[in-house]
Amino acid sequence: MGVVVLGACAVWPLLSAAGRDGRPEGVLLAVLAVAAGYAAGRMSGSLWPVAAPCLAGLAGLVLAVTMPAVATGSRFTSPLGHAGAVAALLVLAAGGVCCAAWATPVPALRAGLWTVAAGIAVTGAAMGSAAGCAAGAAVLLCSLAAGRMRRRDAGLVGLALATALVTGTVWALAANALPAGLTTALTGPLTERRVQLWRDALHLARTNSVLGLGPGRFGEVSGAASGAAPPDGRPHSALLQQAAEQGVVGVLLLVAVFCWILYALWRSARSTPVVLTAGAALTALAAIAVVGDALSFTTVSAGAGLLAGVATSRPWAAGLPRS
Fold first, then answer.
1. N or C end of the chain: which has fewer CB within 10 A?
2. Closest CA relative to residue 272, chosen from 151, 118, 111
3. Which secondary-structure segment (H or E) carries 216?
4. CB-count exposure of residue 73 (10 Å: 0-12, 13-18, 19+)
5. Which sign, positive or negative, has the C-alpha torsion 250, 33, 281, 289?
6. How many CB atoms lie within 10 A of CB 244?
7. Which pLDDT score, from 0 to 100, does residue 262 have?
């Protein structure tokens, strides 16, 4: 199923770009990064079920701290800068460390890894990434709560509903379909500029609903994007960028990838706490991607695939019973 979904995600941008001067290379690179990360996670998680997610989490933390331009003042603090990528890497780092905590049978090591996860959230606050701090703390709390859940299906359904709520809210805000008071409250922290980009993307999606504008063409067509300072040609929402550039099929494929990951987690041989921890981290990443530009960074796409691969791997030794 994963091969079919990722294959379709690679083929459709080529069809959407055909004869329209589209640039599908960025989408193809993202698909390749997810596939490579997932394969690496499956292999490393099978061999080293504790070390692999732990090292991946620490690597994500290092990348978040050392990402170019994250400390360049206004560009980092701007909602349209690198803040989304930093928050996403912090979330994936916390998810990896918490997965390692549940995978180890040593209580002292488990407590130490949870302490590291808490430190990752604190690091987000120290870097000025409020989203990274909040999302990292949420992943840690969900991971601790996962230890008390006997059935993973209820938890995964809850995560899917949370993602749908965030997605629906963003779509409604872009369509100007929310009550005036709620629209004002959300526009404040999101900024008027971002909301204007979303509305422009939704308008373009409605006028090019089947094939979309073509990958990479939003900045050329959108008046809001061309008037931005500095212009970067993105609506800063993975959902609305798919809708504008690849039409309704692109949106359905994006949803299919997330649903496939949840299904793979449900079928995973790993323990329920590991599965739900990874699911919580990937849900937080999905929320960040819906309201930001996180998936435009290859490291984030590869990290998401890696975490999903580790959480769905089957340990090489006797195997872990599903619970």
1. N
2. 151
3. none
4. exposed
5. negative
6. 32
7. 94
Closest to 143 measured CA to CA, from 201, 189, 103: 103
Which of 99, 112, 115 has its CA nearest to residue 50?
Answer: 99
Residue 4 φ then ψ, to 5°:
-65, -45
Supply 272's token pair: 């329920």
Compute and round to an integer the Cα radius of gyration of the chain: 19
Residues contacting 275, CB < 8 A, separation 6+: 152, 156, 265, 266, 268, 311
DSSP per position, 144-213:
HHHTT-S-HHHHHHHHHHHHHHHHHHHHHHHTT-S-HHHHHHHHHHH-HHHHHHHHHHHHHHHHTTTT-S
What phi, psi does 67 have (nearest 5°)? -55, 135
For the beta carbon of residue 202, count every other beta carbon within 10 angstroms. 21
Distance CA(168)–CA(176), nearest Å, equals: 12
Please say whether the beta carbons of 200 and 236 come within 8 A.
no
With beta carbons less than 8 A apart as the criterion, state whether 134 and 93 touch: no
Q: Residue 102 has what DSSP assignment? A: H
Q: Residues 150-199: pLDDT tens digits?
A: 889 999 999 999 999 999 999 999 998 889 889 899 888 888 888 888 98
pTM of the model: 0.90
